[in-house]
Design a protein that fits this description.
The chain is α+β, with helices and mostly antiparallel strands. It has one domain (4-110). 48% of the residues lie in helices and 16% in strands. The chain contains four helices and three strands, in the order ααββαβα. It has helices spanning 4-26, 37-44, 70-84, 103-112, and strands at residues 49-54, 57-64, 93-97. Strands 1-2-3 form a three-stranded mixed β-sheet, covered by helices on one side. It is globular, with a radius of gyration of 17 Å.
């Protein structure tokens, strides 16, 4: 059984490997192309937003419109999902929003949406 420290090392290794794997194609031709992992995590990968799922399928990615990097990040996400689309049947929609809804609002919307049996 792993202790917490060993698990944390595995998670940080995974995050580092994902950033390294995506760097050559996801960030190319963007302002983030020359940025290191730390700056990407601190300045780009923390843009407020939300995800919309239909069942288990990701339908939409919405980023906060007034964030300075939202537009460029949207382009990078399109590249990411294009790369991953070989495994998916459809791609999610991308959007920017004025303000992401609160968790309470998203929860209320999910509860009010009828589910298919």
């Amino acid at each position: 059984m792993l202790d917490a420290q060993e698990a944390w090392v595995i998670v940080t290794d995974l995050a580092h490997n994902l950033l390294t794997w995506s760097h050559d194609w996801m960030w190319m031709d963007s302002p983030f192309e020359t940025w290191g992992h730390l700056r990407l995590v601190q300045d780009v990968l923390n843009i407020p937003g939300y995800l919309v799922f239909k069942g288990t399928k990701l339908e939409k990615v919405a980023l906060q419109r007034d964030h300075p990097f939202a537009g460029e990040m949207q382009d990078c996400l399109v590249r990411l999902f294009h790369e991953l689309s070989r495994c998916w049947k459809s791609r999610p929609k991308f959007d920017t929003v004025a303000r992401p809804p609160t968790l309470r609002k998203l929860t209320a919307e999910a509860q009010s949406t009828p589910r298919k049996p």
